[in-house]
Amino acid sequence: MTSNATRGRQTYRRAYLGLWMLAGVTFGVLVGLGYNLVATAAFFLLAGATLVVERTSGATLFDERDESIHRRASARTMGLYGVLSALVFPALVALDAVGLYEWGPMAAGVAIAVAVLYVTYLAMTMVVGARR
After folding, report:
1. How far is CA 6 from the centre of its chain?
2. How far apart are CA 79 and CA 92, in angstroms?
3. Which residues, at least 6 apart from 62, have a Cβ–Cβ distance to it below 8 Å?
4. Secondary structure string (H, E, C) spanning 13-38
5. Long-range contacts of 22-29 (CB under 8 A, 24+ apart)
6. CA 84, 90, 91 angle in degrees (round to 5)?
7. E strands along the chain, which residues?
8. pTM of the model
């Protein structure tokens, strides 16, 4: 790959990643300010712009090195949250049982979301494993 091609690829990658970061930050700020519909529209507009960048770049934005990094980071993230969940949620259940903690809607929602995440992860692991 030539120096110009590498520089062009890096420029598109930065634009792509920058647009996703801008989409997330803009969404969060606008929701925080109470502009929920504007936040949603801005997010979808910026997310759509990432598709335009990806389709018009004419280069491979992400290669096998990026995939390897993503795979390792994903595995570490799932492992970290798995360990934290295995420590925190049983402790909260025990504290609730002795009257030192009360499950609120937010904590219950987080617990359900984490459970759904790991059930989905298990299902995907089984699907991927079956295809090998």
Report:
1. 27
2. 20
3. 13
4. HHHHHHHHHHHHHHHHHHHHCCCHHH
5. 22/46, 23/47, 23/50
6. 85
7. none
8. 0.65
